Amino acid sequence: MPHHSSSTNASLISTSSTIANIPAAAVASISNQDYPTYTILGQNQYQACYPSSSFGVTGQTNTDAESTTLAATTYQSEKPSVMVPAPAAQRLSSDPSTSPSLSQTTPNKDADDQSRKNMTSKNRGKRKADATSQDSELERVFLWDLDETIIIFHSLLTGSYAQKYGKDPTVVIGSGLTMEEMIFEVADTHLFFNDLEECDQVHVEDVASDDNGQDLSNYSFSTDGFSGSGGSSSHGSSVGVQGGVDWMRKLAFRYRKVREIYDKHKSNVGGLLSPQRKEALQRLRAEIEVLTDSWLGTALKSLLLIQSRKNCVNVLITTTQLVPALAKVLLYGLGEIFPIENIYSATKIGKESCFERIVSRFGKKVTYVVIGDGRDEEIAAKQHNMPFWRITNHGDLVSLHQALELDFL
């Protein structure tokens, strides 16, 4: 993308050359609940550099010492790259063949997104009451895409990232394949993906109403006869039949267990791995952070800043199936940023339907801001009159953080 191609973008913020000259009225328009027109947030008015001293990672707290070690790999490695010199910013955005202008969008990641009915209708007991109380204080909800927005993953596998940024494709693709292997290792071993691949849900609570609350302390998931495909049942009743009462109950048990495991290890994914695999993950995350020029570390600045605000919340909508998406979030060290109840998979229903669900959950009085790199989330944002901040390179992430620091978002 050309260095100043974002000037073609419609903007809620004045295109003045200096931040100080941005009209307050233009900025304030983003706070309105009902946007009169759909806009893509202008990003060209922010300077490419800003001091790293303004950001700290202390907002993320890990209770386990080993998780601190694991997290430090990512957070520390991004510090030297906080400053983005003008030549570097130019290099990151100078390839017109791989970086479309802000007036266009090229879907460059796996198709993902979709959610279903309102999550709160599936919540039960105290958890529902707590969520309602917290949601009532919200003023702004940030809807994030995952791949190629917060993390670099899909483009590692395809080699497109290596091509765009002049990296060694063998090393880049190899790192992507190793991370993919770890994602499915965690998903299969700990999150029942073998059982749940054909029973994908938009949200972890979608089948909670079928859960009878049975104590699962001594429950044997491996011998309960559940089949995700529903085609291998030899029972003569509803037991084991896909969609039957017993089958739905066992499905709900698995998603309840998935939630428990996620909550337990959201700040300590190393607890799910052997010492050797945990060490391998530390090395891999550090390697990917170097290969991607601290992409995740740069995105984390905005995520943590939003998280520090009492009246704002980060919500993740991904086109990856829910279970591998949860594994991906854990392995990339984002479990503390995204509580499991704030993660949606759009694989089945698309991002537009996911957005509808999220609006039903949080209400129409809050402001929604969509952050992503793809055409699907841009179209969904347009349908709901939500401002859209496109991420195509490191400079867009830096500008996003600046806009947040200046309270424009």
UniProtKB/TrEMBL annotation:
Pfam family name, one: Hydrolase
Record-given protein name: Eyes absent homolog
Note on cofactor: Binds 1 Mg(2+) ion per subunit.
Group of enzyme by EC: hydrolase
NCBIfam families registered for this protein in UniProt: EYA-cons_domain
Spans annotated as Disordered: 76-132
Primary location class: cytoplasm
A Gene Ontology term for the protein's cellular component: nucleus
Names of required cofactors: Mg(2+)
Binding residues for Mg(2+): D145, D147, D373
Gene Ontology molecular function: any one: metal ion binding
Compartmental location: Cytoplasm; Nucleus
InterPro entries noted in UniProt: EYA, EYA_dom, EYA_dom_metazoan, EYA_dom_sf
Family: Belongs to the HAD-like hydrolase superfamily. EYA family.
